[in-house]
């Protein structure tokens, strides 16, 4: 790790508004999903709170049943590049799929963002889980779950190989001698695999952080295994102690099996903190988030994780029946988590849909209560930080920054200033040595 003392890390979703119908809130511009000023405000709030990164979730498939926010929104590389110009420290993590795109294109886009931002890019590598997405990319459907991850693993190897096309000091740019680059330090990839054939090299030099930080969000067996092998950080849906502990132990065990150190991979569960002067006031704020969510909107959100399964055939106020393997090739781990939650807590379909559309969680209370819960889970060592999902954008972030951040700082577990100019540096992750430089160094030692 770059920094000797462990510190709490925070990120937040780069979202125009919260909840499926958050655009209806009086304080939110109706066109917030494509209003860049709104995104700038979220980014400003993140830097105000000294957050490590903005997390841009994305998908490339919509239907008439999609929630409003998804119907028209910015593509990740575009909006993150624009934000790079108006931010200084916060990391810029974008979602790019491994299922229906070329690894060279993704490698170039992210390397460009990394250089453009001075070393602040991150990649949320996903396999794409919506059934209809394949039909937008010349396929009849998405690949089955296991095949998606076989493709993804090779895709990641290709991208990481391309990011090592140039050694750190390859670009000499010596005006006196006329040497622009040391071409001995340029390397082709010459990859020929099961799914991809890529020559390289990449036409983009390395950034100050070496290469973009890799995030992964899969919770299935294949997803966790891929994360343990190559990811620097993982986005998790587990913020309760029991599930978070199980997830942590499983992931760290897998990472060690790949020869990695436990601290090489960071875990970030999602939480929705809502603070009030009293517990009652915080609860009232949560209830207000439900005012803009009718049951039809909540069911829309739920359906997305189950291949747009029609839940309308079931009674709203009765426990959810056994759904078998619905969702097995879509958001597999998330669908399984929601079904397990419904079974364990005996939730009705209405209760589950509202819980998914506007999760309350354990981080609703006074600033002291929220800070205590964050510190307790972080000090247990099972998480490294949190991805905040604001109940109201950006007001919820400002409230958290004003009332909770100072408590965490006073306790000495959260930064009072950014430690680095790069995302990797602020996360405390090691600088990745270029594989060709490493080989050169090993050769010189043994010669």
Report on the structure:
Keywords: Flavoprotein, FMN, Monooxygenase, Oxidoreductase. The chain has 16 helices and twelve strands. It has 447 residues and is of the alpha/beta class. Strands 1-2-3-4-7-8-9-12 form an eight-stranded parallel β-barrel, surrounded by four helices. A two-stranded antiparallel ribbon has the order 5-6. It has a two-stranded parallel ribbon with strand order 10-11. α5 runs parallel beside α6 and α9 packs across α11. The chain is globular.
Task: Give the SSE map.
Elements: E1 9-13, H1 36-48, E2 53-56, H2 68-71, H3 76-84, E3 91-97, H4 103-116, E4 121-126, H5 145-162, E5 191-192, E6 197-198, E7 213-216, H6 221-230, E8 233-236, H7 241-257, E9 266-271, E10 274-275, H8 279-290, H9 295-304, H10 332-345, H11 349-357, E11 364-365, H12 367-379, E12 385-388, H13 395-403, H14 405-410, H15 423-427, H16 435-446
Parallel strand pairs: 1-2, 1-12, 2-3, 3-4, 4-7, 7-8, 8-9, 9-12, 10-11
Antiparallel strand pairs: 5-6
Helix pairs in contact: 3-4, 4-5, 5-6, 6-7, 9-11
């Amino acid at each position: 790790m770059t920094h000797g003392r462990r510190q709490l890390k925070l990120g937040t979703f780069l979202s125009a508004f919260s909840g499926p119908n958050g655009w209806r809130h009086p304080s939110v511009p109706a066109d917030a999903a494509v209003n860049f000023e709104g995104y700038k405000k979220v980014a400003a709030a993140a830097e105000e709170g000294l957050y490590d990164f903005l997390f841009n979730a994305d998908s490339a498939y919509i239907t008439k049943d999609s929630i409003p926010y998804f119907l028209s929104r910015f593509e990740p590389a575009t909006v993150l590049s624009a934000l790079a110009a108006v931010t200084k420290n916060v990391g810029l993590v974008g979602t790019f799929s491994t299922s229906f795109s070329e690894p060279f294109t993704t490698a170039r886009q992210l390397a460009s963002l990394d250089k453009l931002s001075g070393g602040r890019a991150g990649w949320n590598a996903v396999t794409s889980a919506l059934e209809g997405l394949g039909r937008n990319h010349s396929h009849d459907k998405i690949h089955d779950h296991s095949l998606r991850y076989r493709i993804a693993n090779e895709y990641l190897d290709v991208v990481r190989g391309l990011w090592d096309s140039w050694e750190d000091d390859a670009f000499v740019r010596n005006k006196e001698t006329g040497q622009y680059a040391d071409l001995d330090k340029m390397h082709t990839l010459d990859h020929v695999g099961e799914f991809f054939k890529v020559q390289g090299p990449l036409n983009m030099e390395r950034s100050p952080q070496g290469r973009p930080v890799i995030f992964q969000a899969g919770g299935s067996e294949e997803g966790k295994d891929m994360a343990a092998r190559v990811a620097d950080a993982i986005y998790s849906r587990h913020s309760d102690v029991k599930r978070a502990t199980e997830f942590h132990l499983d992931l760290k065990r897998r990472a060690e099996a790949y020869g990695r150190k436990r601290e090489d991979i960071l875990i970030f569960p999602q939480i929705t903190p809502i603070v009030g002067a009293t517990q009652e006031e915080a609860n009232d704020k949560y209830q207000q988030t439900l005012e803009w969510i009718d049951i039809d909107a909540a069911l829309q959100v739920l359906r997305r994780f189950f291949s747009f399964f029609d839940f309308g055939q079931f009674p709203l106020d009765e426990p959810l029946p056994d759904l078998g393997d619905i969702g097995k090739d879509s958001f597999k781990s998330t669908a399984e988590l929601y079904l397990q939650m419904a079974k364990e807590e005996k939730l009705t379909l209405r209760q589950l849909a509202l819980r998914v559309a506007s999760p309350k969680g354990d981080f609703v209370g006074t600033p002291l209560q929220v800070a205590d819960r964050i510190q307790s889970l972080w000090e247990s060592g099972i998480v490294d930080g949190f991805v905040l999902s604001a109940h109201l954008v950006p007001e919820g972030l400002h409230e958290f920054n004003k009332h909770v951040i100072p408590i965490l700082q006073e306790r000495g577990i959260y930064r009072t200033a950014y430690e680095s100019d790069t995302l990797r540096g602020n996360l405390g992750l090691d600088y990745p040595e270029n594989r060709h430089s490493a080989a050169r160094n090993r050769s010189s030692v043994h010669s």
